[in-house]
Amino acid sequence: MTDITIWAEKGDDGLRDVSLEVLQKALDLSPLYEGRVSAVLIGENCGALAEELVEYGASRVFAVEDSRLRLYQSEAYAKVLTGVLEEIKPEIVLIGGTTIGMDLAPAVAARLRTGLTAHCVDLHVEKIDGRDQLVQIVPGWGGNMMIRIICPEHRPQMVTVRPGVMEKGKRDPRKKGEIFFVKPELSEDDFRARSMEYVREQQGEGSLEDADIIVSGGFGLYSAGGFGLVRELAEAVGGEVAGTRPAFDEGWIPEIAMIGQSGKTVRPKLFISLGASGAVHYTTGFQKSRVIVAVDKNPKAPIFSVADLGVVGDLKRIVPALIEALQKGRSS
Fold first, then answer.
1. pTM (2 d.p.)
2. Whether 265 and 315 share a structural domain
């Protein structure tokens, strides 16, 4: 039980990025366990994606193919993944914390009678009580601190990882690995509830995950007269608009533009935060951005501990001045 196994989720356009992110994390952890890294792929016509997983570093890929599994089917996928894990008996199982991953992971953990840590933002191994333990980091206590969780007794140790918080590796066509094609044993009882079609989420003009610049606002915009300043600055810098949970609750942004533990995780080249105090459940959503700029009137706001550049002051004065300077620089 030294292997690390990931579940590789398929999207409309191929492998989901989070699957490649958890694969790289598994590769980073594997030398400490001296085991192989395996991937489980479920769906229809998985051959090309299985080869892609090998090129990203998987030693083994178990490709479970069945035309009925083209779309995610909750009961069937749980049965299939549980069966593969029972066969290979890994030490650790990593699953991307997508909508589908968050449905599948607890169902599999219950079948395996093991624990599950959800929404992880970091993973590392420590020697605890004389044993190498996987330390699973999650935001906790209302997002005000990071909690360390271990699973000392039950195996496998199962984790869901938030999309975007880890780096995916580089693809190398020279890498070699084994691909095993598996025919699942499924009955009609495994399809009592069926997924019939997927409807793609409306992203608006741009996708936050692909944006180079993001301007995000918090509840501090309430005293500044609303979210207009965020939109004006985003337009001035050519960025996308985002916000905190309170900004969503106020109706200033749609849910798909929410940043943080209950929203999206992003890593743009520039992240500008306006009027957000910086609780951990918010900052985990952008802490790996290349440059973070924060503006808030409270000099003791936690946001300044993660910002590369912090500005203390009134948003109604600072942001218009910044927009004016940008517009002058553009016209000169």
1. 0.75
2. yes
